[in-house]
Design a protein that fits this description.
The structure holds 2 protein chains of 2 kinds. Chain A is mainly α. Chain A has 12 helices and no strands. Chain A is elongated and about 60 Å long. Helices cover 26% and strands 31% of the residues of chain B. In chain B, the strands form 4 sheets. Chain B has a 15-stranded mixed sheet that branches. Chain B has a 6-stranded antiparallel sheet with strand order 17-18-19-26-21-22, with no helix packed on it. In chain B, strands 16-27-20-23 form a 4-stranded antiparallel sheet, with no helix packed on it. In chain B, β12 and β13 form a beta hairpin. In chain B, α3 packs across α8, α3 crosses α9 and α8 runs antiparallel to α9. The radius of gyration of chain B is 26 Å and the shape is globular. The chains are: A mainly alpha, B alpha+beta. Chains A and B meet through α1, α3, α5, α7 and α9 of A and α1, α3, α4, β12 and β22 of B.
Amino acid sequence: MIGAGVLLGVLLGAFQDPAPPGSTDGEAAAAVEAFKAAFSRPEATEDDRVLAIRTLGQTVHPLTFAVLAPLMTERSALAPIRIAAALVLADFRAVEETPAALMKAYRDPTNALPAMRAVRIRILQTLGALEAVSAAGVINAAILDPDPWVARAAARAAGKTRHISSIDPLIRRLQLLESKEGNKAVSGEDPVPDPTKGKSDPRPKGGDKYGDGDGSKRTERHVVQASVQDALVSITRLRHTCAENWAKWWAQARRDFKVPK
Amino acid sequence: MTMFCPDEEKLSAWVERSLAAVDEETVSVHLAACDDCRRAATLAFLSAGESPGSLESDGERRIFLAVQGALAEPSACVPEDMLAAWLQDGLGPEDRGRVTEHLSSCDDCRHAAALTRLSTAEPVSALGADQEARALDLVLRTASRDAFFSFWRVAAASIVVAIAASYVSVHWTAPGATRPAPMAATGADRTAVGNFSPSTPPKSPTPSEKPADSPRVDPGPEKSTLPAVDNPPTPPVPAPASRFQPVPVFEWEGIPAPASGRLSFGDALRPKGTASVNVEGRALVVLDEGTEARLGYAADASALVVEVGPGRVFIDTAGAAQNWEIRRGDRSVTLRAFRGRAAAETDPSGLRVLILRGSAEVGADRLESNHIVEVQANSEVRIEEGSEACRPRAQRYDAIRPRTLLVFRANAGSTSTEGPWRFVSPSRWAEALEDGARLVPEITDPVRWVAIALDEPLPYASDMVLRAACGGSGTRLCVWADGWYREIARKSSDSSAVEEWPLRGLRKEMVDLVAGEPLRKLMIGVIQEGGKPRTLEVDKLEIRRVLD
């Protein structure tokens, strides 16, 4: 029976796996056609469209990529559609243009709006999942983003891409977190969003709040510091206790430093 | 009727007949509808059957190579559903002619058809357990001998295994057989009226109840009329009672509770007023006043089946694409890839199906909302635009339909290994978790959790709401589902109050949860504000979809 089980395993694997990278042109074209039919149905709900994106994302092919990538910046696409597109592209490592498309979407003005913060974070997560070294520039800039949640996602992505250029912004962010800046309250009222209270964006607006004047103890340091530390350890395979020690070490080591494997 | 394919271990155990009765039934029902798994199960049987107990590695390799090569080629044989329809006179003249012609030249398909006919020649439900086992063995042995090393023969064998699945399925649904445990009734939302009887024996098949294929219609712009399907050239074979499998029912109103948590086609639903049935958390069937109906699942057509007696039945697919076979005696309309709402009604002149919302494929046509398919008394099929007729039906449905669709129910602090929902919940009282400190990074206070681990993942939909009966002193809570979370506030301090929270808005790392994400674990946490002890007790818990 073991033999039968092995045989079954092989056969079931062949039958049930989603189309692997390198799906044939025919499969990809069929997947795109099915996607168009489902996505553009007049009565399609947001969920229907997200599910159509998820289904299309199972066929990894330049043709399906060409349909998915524009969804991240499509003007009429709401955040869940963009998030779903960025989510499924995490499986598109085999398509060379994927990191570039994600970076383009990250920089797109429509994704710079506060309501699209989740899209930017999801794009950073996907870049990290793809270990996209070519995206180090975008990730490094995001590490210093004023939004702590974007910075947190960027730090995590930096820990996965492990590019040497990320060390500087990570240490800089850590220095900020250990200064008075780090006491900045993350959110005035709604740290864990409640959809019944409407949309909110915890990005600090206008006069920055320091300390815990609003009664909340959640600060940028709480949100970002551990992710930055983890990223530095992931890149360097070293541990230092504070920003000052990291900075001292980096001042000495940067000339000859190579990212260990 | 699980939607997910069983893993190879479970499928192997099914071949060996070593599964528990409930699991075996689930796999059997799945095999009846899934080509891939049936094929794999057939191959597993063949490889085990060559040298019972110890297939030599060389033999296994030969089988694998031969089958792998054969499976890579496209099939030119008749699909098994078409073969089944041919046997049951369910094909139009053109398709019937094509199948007959193919059978004249294909030994394998002829053999498969013969086996199918043999296996359905007498009522399976009349067989005793020993007879059934002998019949099963006979069919499978025949399949193994004849199907060896040939793809087409393997395909034939897969049909045989499907038949075997039907045998097993029918046996299990016989009175006294093992059945899933009934769901806990909430009483308040389930009335017990009508003449429904779970023990009603299956209705004997008559020639007039033979399943029919979808009506064949001209693709005219608004209206078309075609003669009904011609009589086939071969004598009709009565549709076996086993064609219709029971459907799991998650919730019902207006009819007595089905004892097994399932409705069989033999169960006539005759509510006194209106009634509704939640079919496996995937669809709603609503009976208008004075309606009689039956429900089942036809594996050969991969369709849910509703037989409409006098009256009107509404079908709501809750947004998913499904196949529905709507019948009235010898007339039927099959809605393929149906996504939306429909009304099916009968009158002395025939059967009418009105597409109230969404779209469906009917024969070669794709119908959008506000279209009517009518099968008249003379068997003519007519499709016409009908917004005037559809509007009042849509209003009527809106007036009598349930507003929510139950998709999951559990009792915290218990474990369920049977029935539609299988889960493990260690405690109904919130407890500290070893790895709970970083579950919700935004909340710095300690959190205690009531956890429920699901046996099968639940795909998230944005219209889901979580209902839970909560007690305890905590007022700040957190809903957590597979890493996505949201802080919530209890609205009532009454320990018996049922709270309801939308799942929309759950986030992880500030990224919203989107549709289709599989949820395997649900937790409700109570935040220990400032480290002060707060308690939470959760009793019943439900997830429902709120239908618009």
